[in-house]
What we know:
Largest sheet: 5 strands, mixed
Helix content: 40-55%
Distance between the termini: 22 Å
Shape: globular
Strand order of the largest sheet: 3-2-1-4-5
Number of helices: 11
Amino acid sequence: MIILGIETSCDETAASIVTGEGEILSNVIFSQIEEHAPYGGVVPEIAARAHLEAIDWVIEKALKDARIEFDQLNGVAATCGPGLIGGVLVGSMTGKAIAAALQIPFIAVNHLEGHALTARLTDQINFPYLLLLASGGHTQLIAIHDIGSYEIVGGTIDDALGEAFDKTAKMLGLGFPGGPMVEKTAAQGILGKYKLPYPLKGRKGANFSFSGLKTAVRQKIEGMPAGKIPFQEKANLCADFQRVVAEIVEDRTINAIEVFKKRYPKGGALVAAGGVAANQAIRSALKKASSTANLPFIVPPPSLCTDNGAMIAWVGIERLTLGCTNELDFKPRPRWPLNEISRYH
């Protein structure tokens, strides 16, 4: 089985060829960072236009790198939501066109399901497992029971974790994308210089809240002397911000693990996915939480934590193996909660 996966939900135009054995033959990603950097964030109209300009050559390169011809494909999987609808339309319509022209199955993929199943591609883990999905738009703890069976154990009640990183970077003038810049700057900071709140830490449940933390960071910045903020102060604030985030993630995850282990006392693993999962401080916190609960901790390589076509292709393989395909009139969705997915959507 050879599947083409197409991902265009945000600011990466990506295509990948993956086999049924889990071999990634190619994984091409065109980043739009330069286009969005002047604005400090992703501009939907710019993103959609960039996807439209890049999609053809990205797919052609994925095929060339894999040494695969179109007529060797057994199916096409494309992100159909959630995400910026302009970009989602570009990828989904391209995928449908290829499937129609070749008369092969089309699989409409939920972007979040791509992240949720990546560990099965990279580590061949079995169901069930507990997933922390952390990205610019989503922060959720999810019990992954089976294909199309996902239970939200906890989620953010306001801002996503990735957004908190991006806004902190923007307020400090660190550049875009914010997450890697905050982590890099924090490495040069001194811990304990700034006192920040720990929203929901120590409370029952597994929900997150980052709005108050983001506000506290803004207030610290506003309290600094007018003019250019010294780099060391930026680094100190990033260090304390990152430490607080890591401790919150560990606390919330421990609570989610307790819920998960009541249902599955003898099995499972803790998995991290999404762009924020590439942050080393957060990885360390999750590893500590999993060790305390005696659960294996699995996290895909950084290149497969951020948005990519390989994870979309893999969902296509998982679903096509079960005979779960979609008609070409499937409507892309800007909002598509993971717990609303079924085997046949």
